[in-house]
Specification:
Elements lengths: L2 H18 L3 H15 L10 H5 L6 H13 L3 H9 L2 H6 L7 H10 L5 H9 L11 H15 L5 E2 H18 L5 E4 H4 L4 E2 L2 E5 L3 H10 L3 E5 L2 E5 L5 E6 L5 H8 L3 H11 L10 H7 L13 H8 L14 E5 L10 H10 L4 E7 L11 H18 L3 E9 L10 H4 L4 E5 L8 H13 L5 E2 L17 H11 L2 E5 L12 H6 L4 E4 L11 H10 L13 H12 L2
Parallel strand pairs: 4-7, 8-9, 9-10, 10-11, 11-12, 12-13, 13-14
Antiparallel strand pairs: 1-3, 2-4, 5-6, 6-7
Helix pairs in contact: 1-2, 1-5, 1-7, 8-9, 20-21
C-alpha cells in the first residue's frame, strides 16, 4: 500500500468514528495522522518499523496500524466500522457539504440511510428542524445530491425527460431530413431509465463522427451505436434503412412480454410500406394500443375484443389530494396552496399535514389541528365554491394504530394512513401494521403502500394480494403517490387492485405548490396499468368526492 491509500484509510476511519459518535479524540488523531502521512516525502513501505515510529505525529497506536496495513493490505478497525455502517450511510460521505457530524444527525436522528432518502428529506424540508441545517445548507446539500446522482447511470423518468427531448432536437437539427424516433423504456414511461434509445435512418459512420466530435465515448455493435457523454447517460442509436424504421420502432416500443405475444399471434414481419404504428394495428383490424400500455398480454387481448380502456389523462385530475403546508413540513402557506390550486383549474384541495408522531415534520398536535380547521373554514368561505378538505397524513404506529384518538380522527373529512418510521421490518411486521390501519374505520386512503424510494430504498415487503383484499373489505382507497421518486403503489399491482374493485388515488404528496405538477408522473405510470378516470379518486368532481366521503363516513 502506498502512502495515499494508508492516509485515506485513516481519514475514513476517523470519519466513521465521528459518524458513530464514538471517541472524538481518536477520530481527530486518525485525521491528523492521515494528513501527516499524505505529506511524507518518502513511502512508508520503504521504511523500517523503527523509522515509522519515529515520524513526528505517528504514535504507537497509529504506527502499529500502519504496519498492519503494509503487511496485510487491510485495516481491521476500519473494516469493523464499515461492517457496522449501512452502505447508504457510507455513500453519504460522497456528498459535498456533508461532514461526519451532519451525517450522524441525518442517520441517527432522521433515520436516513441512503442518498435518495436524504434528497427526499430535503424536498420535504425535514433538515431545517435540526441544529446545523439552515435553509441554505439544505439547498446546497440538495444540489450536491442531484449532481452526484446524475453521475450514477440510472435516472428517474422525470429526471431524464428534458435531456431526452433536447438530445432528440439536437440530432434532428444537425441531420435535417433524417428521422430520429425515440423509443424503448423512455417512450413506454418506465419509471427508471437505464438507457435512451432512438431508431434512425442516418448512417452509422456520420453519427459516430458527430458524437465523437462532441466528446462522447462511442462504440458500435452491428448497426447500433452505444455512446456516453459527460452526462453519464447511455445512448443507443439503431441505424436502419428508411423503409425499416416503422418495424423497428414498433419492436422497440413494446415490452418483451407484449412483443412475444404479438409475434405469436401475428408474426414478426411488418411490411416495408407501412409508415406508422397505427397502420400496423390497422393491418390486423385492431384499435391502436398506446405505447405506454404495451406492457402485458392483457392489452392485446383487450384490443382483439375491442375493449381497450380509455386511459386516464392529466386533464382528468379534478383536485389535489395529499398535500402539506407550512403547518407541518411544507414550504408554502395554506392560502398560497389554495390560490395555486384554483389558478391551475382544480376544484378542491385536500390538506393533509403530518400527524403528531412525525416530530421531524412538525406534526400537528390536537390543539394545532383545531386552529388549522378554523383557518380552513375561513378560507373555504373566502374562496368558495373551491373547497379545502380537512385531512391528515396519520402515521401508522408500530402496532398499526393511527396517530390520534377516535375523537380527533373523526374531526377530519378524510384520513391518509402512511408508514414513516421503523421501515426496516419483515413482511409479517409490515403486514400487521398495514392491515390494522386498513381496518381502522377512519382510514380513507392507504398512503405510499411500501414506503419505497426509487433508486434509493426498496421499501418494506408486503403481500399485495392480501392488502387489496382488505381494502376491498373496508372500502379503503390505495394511493398512487405521484412523486417521481415514489410512484407507490407500483403500477404493476394496480390492475389487480382495480379488477378487485379498489379505487386508486393519484396524489402528488406536494410539499410546495410546484409539487402539484408531480401528478403528471403518477398519470404516466397509471396509464401503463390501464387505469381509467373512473377508477381514480382524484378524478372525482367536488360533488362526487363529497358524496363519496359522506358514504364512507356513514359505513
Amino acid at each position: 500500500m502506498d502512502n495515499s491509500a494508508i492516509a485515506d484509510n485513516f481519514s475514513f476511519l476517523g470519519k466513521l468514528i465521528d459518524i458513530h459518535g464514538d471517541d472524538s479524540f481518536k477520530a481527530k488523531s486518525y485525521g491528523a495522522s492521515a494528513f501527516t502521512i499524505d505529506k511524507l516525502p518518502v513511502q512508508l513501505s520503504t521504511l523500517s518499523p523503527d523509522k515509522i515510529f519515529s515520524i513526528k505525529g505517528i504514535g504507537q497506536t497509529t504506527g502499529k496500524k500502519i504496519l498492519e496495513q503494509l503487511e496485510t493490505g487491510r485495516l481491521a478497525a476500519l473494516d469493523e466500522y464499515i461492517t457496522r455502517t449501512p452502505a447508504g450511510v457510507l455513500e453519504l460521505l460522497n456528498i459535498k457539504g456533508l461532514g461526519p457530524k451532519k451525517i450522524a444527525t441525518v442517520w441517527k436522528d432522521l433515520g436516513i440511510e441512503s442518498v435518495g432518502e436524504l434528497l427526499y428529506a430535503c424536498e420535504e424540508n425535514r433538515l431545517l428542524l435540526y441544529k446545523g441545517f439552515g435553509e441554505k445548507t439544505q439547498q446546497n446539500i440538495s444540489e450536491s445530491i442531484t449532481f452526484y446522482l446524475s453521475n450514477q447511470g440510472s435516472y428517474l423518468w422525470g429526471q431524464i425527460e428534458q435531456y431526452a427531448v433536447t438530445f432528440t432536437e439536437k440530432l434532428s437539427e444537425h441531420f435535417p431530413g433524417k428521422s430520429f424516433e425515440i423509443t424503448g423504456d423512455f417512450k413506454r414511461h418506465v419509471e427508471v431509465i437505464d438507457k435512451l434509445e432512438w431508431v434512425t435512418d442516418e448512417g452509422i459512420n456520420k453519427l459516430s463522427d458527430f458524437l465523437k466530435v462532441h466528446n462522447y465515448e462511442v462504440a458500435t455493435n452491428n448497426n447500433t451505436i452505444i455512446a456516453k457523454g459527460a452526462e453519464n447517460v447511455v445512448l443507443q442509436l439503431h441505424c436502419v434503412d428508411t423503409d425499416k424504421i416503422t418495424a423497428l420502432v414498433f419492436e422497440k416500443n413494446c415490452s418483451p412480454e407484449f412483443l412475444s405475444e404479438w409475434q405469436n399471434k401475428y408474426g414478426d414481419i411488418i411490411p416495408a410500406n407501412l409508415t406508422s404504428d397505427k397502420e400496423i394495428f390497422d393491418q390486423h383490424s385492431l384499435p391502436f394500443i398506446p405505447v405506454c400500455y404495451r406492457e402485458k398480454e392483457k392489452a392485446l387481448i383487450q384490443a382483439s375484443e375491442n375493449n381497450l380502456p380509455k386511459l386516464i389523462e392529466v386533464a382528468d385530475i379534478k383536485g389535489i389530494i395529499h398535500s402539506h403546508s407550512d403547518w407541518s413540513d411544507g414550504g408554502d402557506t395554506l392560502e398560497t396552496m389554495v390560490q395555486s390550486a384554483i389558478a391551475k383549474g382544480f376544484e378542491y384541495l385536500v390538506i393533509s399535514d403530518h400527524s403528531q408522531t412525525a416530530v421531524y415534520a412538525k406534526g400537528l398536535y390536537p390543539e394545532r389541528i383545531i386552529a388549522q380547521h378554523e383557518l380552513i373554514d375561513e378560507l373555504n368561505e373566502k374562496y368558495k365554491p373551491f373547497k379545502i378538505f380537512k385531512s391528515i397524513e396519520s402515521d401508522i404506529l408500530n402496532d398499526g394504530r393511527l396517530d390520534y384518538t377516535d375523537e380527533v380522527l373523526a374531526s377530519f373529512d378524510l384520513v391518509i394512513a402512511s408508514i414513516h418510521s421503523n421501515l426496516k421490518m419483515p413482511e409479517e411486521k409490515a403486514m400487521m401494521r398495514l392491515m390494522n390501519a386498513i381496518s381502522n374505520p377512519y382510514t380513507t386512503i392507504l398512503g405510499h403502500m411500501t414506503g419505497r424510494l426509487l433508486l434509493s430504498r426498496n421499501g418494506y415487503p408486503v403481500n399485495h394480494a392480501a392488502i387489496i383484499e382488505a381494502c376491498v373489505k373496508y372500502k379503503v382507497v390505495i394511493e398512487l403517490n405521484a412523486h417521481s421518486r415514489r410512484l407507490d403503489i407500483d403500477w404493476r399491482q394496480i390492475q389487480a387492485a382495480t379488477d378487485a374493485g379498489v379505487l386508486i388515488s393519484i396524489d402528488p404528496d406536494a410539499h410546495y405548490t410546484r409539487g402539484f405538477e408531480d401528478i403528471r408522473y403518477g398519470v404516466l405510470v397509471a396509464q401503463k396499468a390501464g387505469l381509467t378516470a373512473k377508477q381514480n379518486l382524484s378524478s372525482f368532481s367536488l360533488t362526487e368526492l363529497e358524496a363519496y366521503l359522506k358514504t364512507k363516513k356513514g359505513m
